[in-house]
Amino acid sequence: MNMILHGIEAPEIIHTNTLTENLGDIQEKHRFDVILANPPFGGKERAEVQQNFPIRTGETAYLFLQHFIKMLKAGGRGAIVIKNTFLSNTDNASVSLRKMLLESCELHTILDCPSGTFLGAGVKTVVLFFDKGAPTKKIWCYQLDPGRNMGKTNPLNDDDLADFLKLQPKQKDSDKSWSIDAKSLDLATFDLSVKNPNGGEAITHRTPLEIIDEIAALDAESAEVLAEIRGRL
Q: 194 and 84, same structural domain?
């Protein structure tokens, strides 16, 4: 099995961190069975890079998503981290990319992650799970809620994902999971917003001290990351 894993070190895995390749040049021999990726967020690509993609946009993560879909074999599986605003943005590139994903792949699962799950993202994220080669019929959504603030000193662990892994194979409904019929989507926007019909996220009122402690912890994490970056320069 050929696999491409972006952003994570592992043996016998091919990595990619650039978008210089013209998608039209990708042949079957270049494709993979599985792609797992956490592409960079917030980057803005130059016009000469954008022209290599059918959907042109300055959003780096959107270009990577197109790249990964193209790099999958028919029947190949993908799991891609992307900021959750991709699900509902109304700009032409976002709508076109959602349409492409839904029509060329079976987007079977959306994992909605809490803030802080992926360090450096700066926004809430989702993980898109899809198989290439058939259009989407039903999407199973799961709202991950570990019950604590996420961060570098308090990362996601196996126990946090236990319920998701238990329910996902049969895509069972629960207070944190539900299904969307692709036929019910708005064909003008292909909006995929994760809106829990079972009540959504509970509103937690925190004390001022708890808020101050969280800000201090985030500032400390940011200072540590910046120090690591300076050390590599």
A: yes
Q: How is the beta sheet containing 72-83 ordered, strand by strand?
A: 3-6, 32-37, 72-83, 125-132, 105-112, 138-143, 177-181
Q: Is 218 exposed, middle or buried (0-12, 13-18, 19+ CB in 10 A)?
A: middle
d(CA 150, CA 58): 29
> Is the same domain home to 60 and 170?
yes
Counting the structural domains of the chain, the total is 2
Element (H, E) at 165: helix 162-167
CA proximity to 176, closest of 112, 126, 118: 112
What range defines the domain where residue 223 resides? 203-233
| Residues 132, 61 share a domain | yes
Strand partners of residue 218: none
Distance CA 181, CA 161 (A): 24
Look at the pTM and tell me if it is higher than 0.85: no
Per-residue pLDDT of the chain (233 residues; tens, 9 = 90+): 444 454 433 333 444 555 556 676 777 777 899 999 988 876 677 788 888 888 988 888 999 999 999 899 999 999 999 989 999 999 999 999 999 999 999 999 999 998 888 766 567 899 999 999 999 999 999 999 988 888 888 888 999 999 999 999 999 999 999 999 999 999 999 999 878 887 654 434 445 654 565 566 666 666 766 676 777 77
